Amino acid sequence: MSRSRNLQVARLMTLLxxxxxxxxxxxxxxxxxxxxxxxxxxxxxxxxxxLGPFWVKVGQVLATRxxxxxxxxxxxxxxxxxxxxxxxxxxxxxxxxxxxxxxWCRRFRDIDTDTPLGSASLxxxxxxxxxxxxxxxxxxxxxGTRARxxxxxxxxxxxxxxxxxxxxxxxxVLDVEATLQIVxxxxxxxxxxxxxxxxxxxxxxxxxxxxxxxxxxxHLATGRVLLQSLAPGASLxxxxxxxxxxxxxxxxxxxxxxxxxxxYFVERMFxxxxxxxxxxxxxxxxATLIDWGMVGRIDRNLGSLGxxxxxxxxxxxxxxxxxxxxxxxxTTEFAxxxxxxxxxxxxxxxxxxxxxxxxxxxxALTDVLRCAAQRGIRTSPMVxxxxxxxxxxxxxxxxxxxxxxxxxxxxxxxxxVMVELARDVFSKEQTARRAMELIVAGxxxxxxxxxxxxxxxxxxxxxxxxxxxxxxxGSDSNGILSRRVAPLLAAGLAVWGMxxxxxxxxxxxxxxGSSAS
Length: 517
Hints:
The protein is an alpha+beta fold. The protein is built from 18 helices and 14 strands. The chain is 59% helix and 10% strand.
């Protein structure tokens, strides 16, 4: 790694730490300070773009963490550019030869090598015609990409550990290791196109229940070459939406939202970046989601809590949202749970009472994420990615069908989601798991009860009663009241125990076989 590149990485980490520290402040910022934040944010974006593809992916993941970076950085990261100068096709021929064999060209009738469909830092994309006459898309990885990215991964891990040790409070909320793992997981399909092909296969299976949503077919996939079908129509960025009838726009938009909700809460695998450039639309064919390199995956518990969080948000239930959100993360030693609930009490009614066309679940989750961080609640990095994905799909659908209500679609989809979750809970696998948990718990309970009875019989049972200092009753912040209550409780238990023993002794002495005085 060159010295100049090391300096660039060090400069980037310094800028990011400075931004994170500044974003922790909960006070109004003067215009001059805001201008400084914007300049710093622009330098962060430019440095990331200069460092290359892996760091662009880091920036995309950071763009999901409104709880970490400032609004100025979020705005700049939304404009990250992964485009590079187009390279001649001859640079990619050795890759095709290594992946497909010496006679790779026999697989195609024609390749438009003069005008690539796209050029990014990791790959270049071409329009091709297969031997049977079908038009397809050929994606070829740039030579040397893997070695560069793996070196960048190692460098980022070292730099992040240093930053985490320097500012431990940030690490306690951000969870540097978990965030890094999200970045590395996101990069794997970018380095191995066979992994992206598997994501697309799962996406196609999910789309079977939606007439208006499609995922390209994969004709061939290796580690560095991906051949897929061409998406009909044009991207939402370029499509002529006047060619669509209101009914077509509504149907496609509704199917897109329902498809994504199913991914979030039922399949627990979702397209992480459904922005307008990754959605192609056609009046008859519907929508096609491309670029499945970056996906999110959540576990069963997080998915269920996510449903509870959105439902609480839609139903104006701040307390329910606070409870679900806290369970999705972890409280740090400086967490302020009461303050978090008070924040949501002010925030949730404003969101729930918004006009339908203004309601944005993704933005709302982003606001909650920021409140949680400010109150010392660590949230899973995947929740940030989930919120960013929801923001992107809602923005895409709003461009296609602005009259469509995300709330209405969510409520319609919620019934299907709950049916699927119930089916999952009562599946054979889950039933067997619950039975095993009961068996294990039963065995453990019997052992514990046997131990308790033995201690009672041997008069070896001890009981510790007390309250943690600082958690006393009332406003006694020093725990003085708790120190007074504990002895009283202990004395009360002792008296109760002595009376119980006295009753037991009386029963024994007056039982069958005893002599009357």
